[in-house]
Amino acid sequence: MTRLRILGIPVDAVTEAQAVQWVRAAMVGGPPRQIVTVNPEFVMRARSDPPFRAVLEAADLAIPDGAGLLWAARRRKQVIPQRVAGVDLIHALAGEAERAGWRVFLLGARPGVAAAAAAVLHRRHPGLIICGILAGSPSPSEDAASSAAVRAARADLLLVAFGAPAQDLWIARNLERSGARVAMGVGGAFDFISGQARRAPAWMRRRGLEWLYRLSREPWRWRRMLALPRFVVLVLKGA
Ligand code: UDP
Q1: What is the DSSP letter of 106?
Q2: Could you tell me the distance, in angstroms and rounded to a whole number, from the CA of residue 195 to the centre of ligand 1?
């Protein structure tokens, strides 16, 4: 596995299939592992947010979840083979979990959303074991209760949807005591899987325009998404 740095932030040049294979290996032994889904917003945030940056540095697998990362790598003659969207990786992992019997816990999103996402995953993967669902809260005052719930459910794979950076900080604080083998921050993935939010059409995703679709659906994101042009400028300057 090749670990690149995009504007100083680690990104692993993995395909979806390699990421699944990596999780399979992580389930068999070794310490609990944290997966982060890096995109240009993550990179820009981490550059001015030392605690978030430290979490990204310490993460065991940093999947390339943004077309901008592939472009930035290409400019430096490096290759990230494909974009691996967190939501696509969840579907792939659900299939693997069904085959291998991993117990999956869904933490976060608005009440009812994770349960709706679980129903969709079950329809596609009838044998999938969803061992727990909890809306919870990213607030550290709730850490003890949420991590105890994950532990009690004997989760193997923990998906945390509190949005970045809260979800990734949550995992860094709680992975050990949660008992999960692998945990991944998944942003709005439960909203997408449940159908609460719609993903960009395939042609936009292929052209690396998912961010534009997102901005059109959720215009309140504009301020956060200023990170994208700033990212482009820094990459062009060769920072
Ligand atoms: N969320 C949550 N608790 C919070 C803040 C957010 O459960 O205190 C959930 C929210 O409902 C959504 C996800 O976290 O499902 C964040 O999604 P978003 O698309 O904003 O993720 P990001 O782009 O920040 O990674």
Answers
A1: E
A2: 15
